[in-house]
Structure formats: C-alpha cells, structure tokens
Amino acid sequence: MAPRANWKGFLRLSLVTCPVALYPATSDSEKVSFNQLNRKTGHRIKYAKVDADTGEEVANEDIVKGYKVDTDTFIEVTKEELENVALESTRTIEIDEFVDRSEIDPRYLIRPYYLVPDGKVGHDAFAVVRETIREMNKVAIGRVVLTNREHIIALEPMDKGLMGMLLRYPYEVRSADVYFDDIQDVKVTKDMLDLAKHIVNQKAGHFEPDKFEDQYETALIDLINKKREGKPITAKERPRGENVVDLMDALRKSVGGDKAVKNSKPAKKPRKAASGQKEMLMPIAGKKPAKEAVARKPAAKPQRKSA
C-alpha cells in the first residue's frame, strides 16, 4: 500500500510554483506497543469522553475547543473560527530565505519529512528549486501548517527529492544556562586528555545506522515470546555503577595499560542487526493458560526476522 501524505499543497520560490506532497520520513509502527487491560477479566480498557461535572458521556459533535483563562473559565473557539484565521502556509510552502546548514542549532530540529512532486505536473519546477538549493549549498527556510499549527520547515536536497525538517520556535527551546550554571570549572590535564583521546581512537568508526540494534525492543519481544510459550520469567541482575576514586587510574584501565595498547587489535565490527529486529510471535489475545500457549505455536510476522 502506498504511503499516505501528511500534507499536500504547493512549493513556491518567488514566481516558481509546483504541487508537492509531504510524507513522514520516520515511523514507530514497528515498535512493540501495549494495550491497557483489566487485570481481573483480561479485557481491554475503553476510554470515554465525559463531562467533568455531570459525569455523562459527551458525543463528538458536541465537543469544541476551549482556551483556559482560569480554573472555571474557558474561551470557546469553534472550528469555523479557526478556519477563518487560516494562513497562506496552510496550502503553500513559501520559501522565505536561504541559510547555511551549520547555522541551524540542533535543538531546533523536530522531525524529518520527504517532499516530492504531487502528480505528473510540476516536476520541472520542482527540479529547478531542488537543484538551485543543491548548487548554492544552502538550506531553504519556509513555513507549513500541520495539525492546525504553523511550523518552520527547513528544506534540503536528498537524492531526487527534498528532505524537510520541522523546526521549533525560539519560545519552545529552553536556555541551557539554567542547567549548566552549576557545573564546576575543572582543569583537565594533558595526561588525562591524551588517555581519553586514545580511548576515542580505539572506538573510532563510521556512522552506520544498520548496525544498531534496539536492545530494549529485542528484550520486549523475548519477554512476550516466553510468556506465549509458558516459559518462566526471571529477573536479570542489574549492573551496578562503581565509584571512580582515581580518574587517572580509571583512564589507564580503560585503555588496558601500555602493554595492552601496543598489542591491541582493531575492534570487531558490530554485528549488523536484521531489519525489524528479532522475530516476534503473534500478539497475545487475552489471557490464556500456559499449557495452551505451548500447544498452540503462533505464526511469526514476516517482517520480524531473527537477528
């Protein structure tokens, strides 16, 4: 099934305009998710929208948005009123300026999207905008409305398309001073720094996302599979942190001493994790006795292959 666009509209650079579609570049659908159950019956918990004072359930058509002024006072805002304040960015990504990628503070980054031409027309205009940004080695800054809110979006070329990164507004970013002011000013000696650099060199590599494995996700899948098969669940011993008494001694032990440094071999390349992490059995359907779970071997989802 083709992915569904989160937004469709137009990309505009001055008088150059083309129809485009915006798709999410990431997904959490492969992660293990849980439902809330009634411990006594094993049934799912159902949530209802009720009036806070009367306790009666409220139909969706009777629910409106309200801005809280104080404890008991709200300003009601209707759907029609919200539509009346719709911005141009509701249907158009207008490129306002071009900046260097290095100037964008990482704290402002929210989430990535893919921007592609929408339909068979407009590919020429899209290519002109994309290649202009590429040749100038810049990032295009524009605005787009998603989920009824306007966002700043940074556009940069990615293969044949554009990657759009939503950005936060300044009022959404907290100042680091509140957290960093109490950090003590410590002088790091050259010997300590040299040892630390050696550790970094030993662990130096390249960013290869395919070799990363979500260990917590794998542990969740193992837990669910064991419960399906009626196997006992034993608690694992948690690692305990050690107090560092002598920092230089800890750094020396980290590099394994002079002898270990001279005879050290390159670290093995981390095992590449298979797509989808480990194989997961079919979801638990209510509460079932352990014997029944063992007798009935569930089918595995094809996308959950063993690492």
Q: Your description of this structure?
A:
With 307 residues, the protein is α+β, with helices and mostly antiparallel strands. Helix content is 23%, strand content 22%. It has helices spanning 79-84, 123-136, 177-180, 190-202, 215-228, 247-255, 257-262, 290-295, and strands at residues 7-13, 16-24, 65-70, 73-77, 92-99, 109-117, 139-146, 149-158, 161-167. The relative contact order is 0.12.
Keywords:
307 residues; 8 helices; 23% helix; extended; alpha+beta
List the total number of helices: 8
Oligomer: single chain
Q: Name the average pLDDT.
A: 81
Kindly state the number of beta strands: 9
Query: Which percent range fits the helix content?
Result: 10-25%
Shape assignment: extended
Q: What structural category arises from helix and sheet content?
A: alpha+beta
Cα-to-Cα separation, first versus last residue: 26 Å
The side-by-side strand order for the widest beta sheet comes to: 1-2-6-9-8-7-5
Are there runs of 5+ residues with pLDDT below 50, and where?
Answer: 258-262, 270-277, 282-303
Write the layout of secondary structure elements.
Layout: E1 7-13, E2 16-24, E3 65-70, E4 73-77, H1 79-84, E5 92-99, E6 109-117, H2 123-136, E7 139-146, E8 149-158, E9 161-167, H3 177-180, H4 190-202, H5 215-228, H6 247-255, H7 257-262, H8 290-295
Parallel strand pairs: 1-5
Antiparallel strand pairs: 1-2, 2-6, 3-4, 5-7, 6-9, 7-8, 8-9
Helix pairs in contact: 4-6
Give the structure's gist in a few sentences.
The chain has 307 residues and is of the alpha+beta class. It is 23% helix and 22% strand. The chain has helices spanning 79-84, 123-136, 177-180, 190-202, 215-228, 247-255, 257-262, 290-295, and strands at residues 7-13, 16-24, 65-70, 73-77, 92-99, 109-117, 139-146, 149-158, 161-167.
